[in-house]
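Researcher: Can you fold this with NDP in place?
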Amino acid sequence: MADQTFRLFIAGEWVEPSKGGYAVVNPATEQVVAEAPEAGVDQVNDAVAAARDAFPAWSRRTPEERGALLHRLADAFERRIPELAPLVQAETGATMRVAKTLQVTQCAVRFRRYADLAKENHDIPLPPSVMPNTALAKGGLIGALAARQPVGVVACITPYNFPLTNMAGKVAPALAMGNTVVVKPAPQDPLAVLKFAEAVEEAGLPPGVFNVVTGSGADAGQALVEADIDMVSFTGSTPVGQRIAESAGRGMKRLLLELGGKGAAIVFDDGDLAGAVAGIGSTWSFHSGQICTAPTRVIAHRSVHDQLVEKLAAYAGHLKVGDPLADDTVVGPVISQVQRERVESLLEAGRQDGAEFAVGGERPDLETGYYVAPTLLTGVTNDMRVAQDEFFGPVVVVETFDDEDEAIALANGTAFGLYDYVWTADAVRGYRVARQLRSGNVGINTVQRNHEAPFGGFKMSGVGRDGGVFGLHAYSELQSIVWPS
Ligand code: NDP
């Protein structure tokens, strides 16, 4: 792979980067996967100009035409899966199970879902209203429609964990609704997204409808947010989301922000402990905890605390850490040396605050790779940094509660509000608790998703919702059209 050349995709052309390239590193082997292009600010602006030029014609295409093109794009993408799966695996360090399913096939699923949704009419009919004569105009029966219009040029800025899937979650609904896009993948793993543009070219999307720029630092992303765009759709950390919102606010740009999380998992005394362990254990077993929705903060009823910790410790202790290409590996590396150091320094803060390491705490003894051992911290209280800050790694912390109100208060006691979980055998209690959690999503007795449900965060976890048809709505503006009957 190291000899493959990657270029920017702007206005339907493959463009040499004006600032050279930088190395994308495999987090397991620490070897260079390939050089990614370093876009200049001028090239970011070229991409935005191309998207601006392409917008009028693309937005006027019929929804059926856009849907058909998105299906062709999904076909062209699927033909490339044998080539893209190893590439995305190498740049993310994902285990093969994660790479083949969520890194790749989910991307095609998203394009097909929005290709179909594009063909439906998403305008909202309104009943006619009898209006009296006024100083403004003659009265009568006035009809109205809330029409959905595309927002315009959308900057899609994504994080490093699931590069293709995150890109698809933004680009597919945005294009389906008639917007044009400039994509800026994360610097750590942009290669598969650059290759994806080959599928865009083959499918015959008009030049400028889809553009990709990449860079190793914040310059490209910053330039994109400040450019002549209409909307920023950003998934990433809360501090970067705040900076983007400040900058976008000056130009009144529309925002969809999917930010960090610190998922609480409340386990009641009647909860299915085996189910809870499997769900909470996904923080270790699913992409090394590099997922914003992970149930990383267990809030256990005192009567089941010891039993739950014992089961979680046994689960974590048996997970094989190592080469993501090996069939039996469950926990691969985190994305980079920098991220491993972030996780380790937060663990050290936990140690100093008095948290106990039931499992983990040492670096795995492996020759290469940015590994963090699955770690379980107990004796944690909400005032500790390990209870408040996001790890984005394979670390679970455990707190204790005595009654329902305390569990809810603890769960709500962080700045985040993205995804919480409740384990209880009592359906009424599960629902009652869910309704009191200040969180955009709540799983009762499951970590499974429903992709048709709206997805997004309360509080510092973001602004806006996507998922299912809500994804299309996110990339539209409502326009009221009224007429006399
Ligand atoms: P970052 O916020 O560091 O980066 C995300 C993207 O923003 C990258 O493409 C980055 O590229 C870009 N960026 C950074 N600074 C700026 C800027 N000033 N202007 C414009 N763009 C900028 O997140 P990570 O990649 O480290 O991802 C991990 C974070 O993402 C976690 O906090 C996690 O919770 C969150 N996340 C949230 C999800 C959700 O749906 N809520 C899902 C997945 C992850 P560059 O650095 O090159 O500029």
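Model: Folded with NDP in place. The radius of gyration is 24 Å.
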